[in-house]
C-alpha cells in the first residue's frame, strides 16, 4: 500500500511540474521579446566581431541567452559550434544574438573566457541585465533560453534550431513563412 501511495504522489508531483512548464511556455510564446542591439552595444561588453549588425531588420532572430545558471565555461566552449551556421545571416537574413548575463561575481571570469572564445560572432556580455530589464516576463527555465523571434519580437519557436534535424526542419519552415509574410506586407 505504501508503494502505491508513493507512486501516486510521484505522478502528482511530476504532473504539476509539467503543468507549470506548459503554462510558462504558453506565457512565453504569447509575449513580445525586445532585443535592442543598439542599447546592448552601449551597455555591454562586446566580444568577437560585429557580425549581425544590419541596416534592415532580419527575417528572424535566433536568441541564445545565458543567465549564469549553468556552467559558464561549458556555455562559452559550446558557442564555437555556431561558426558553421553564422553564414545564414547573410544568406537567409537571419540574425544570431548571443547574450550572456552572468552573476556579478562571475563577470570577470566570463569576460576572460569570452576573450578566448573561438566563435566568429558578437557576444554581448550584459553586465547590467539590460535584456532581463527589457523583458521582465522572460522565463527563468533554461529550456526556454534559446528561441526564435520575428522582427516584431513575437516568439516563433522555442528551442535551439540546430539541436537536431526535426528542429532545423521546423526552423526552415518558420523562416520561409516569415519571408512570405514580409512579401505580403510589402505589397499591401
Plain-language structure description:
It is a single chain. Mean pLDDT is about 80; it is low at about 1-15. Helices cover about 45% and strands about 15% of the residues. It is built from 7 helices and 6 strands; from the N terminus they run ααββααβαβαββα. The chain is an alpha/beta fold and about 190 residues long. A hairpin with a 5-residue loop joins β5 (about 145-150) and β6. It has helices at about 1-30, 35-45, 70-80, 90, 105-115, 130-135, 165-185, and strands at about 45, 60-65, 95-100, 125, 145-150, 155-160.
Portion of residues in beta strands equals 5-15%
- Give the termini distance in whole angstroms: 67 Å
Total count of strands = 6
Structural class: alpha/beta
Order of helices and strands: HHEEHHEHEHEEH
Mean pLDDT: 81
Shape: globular
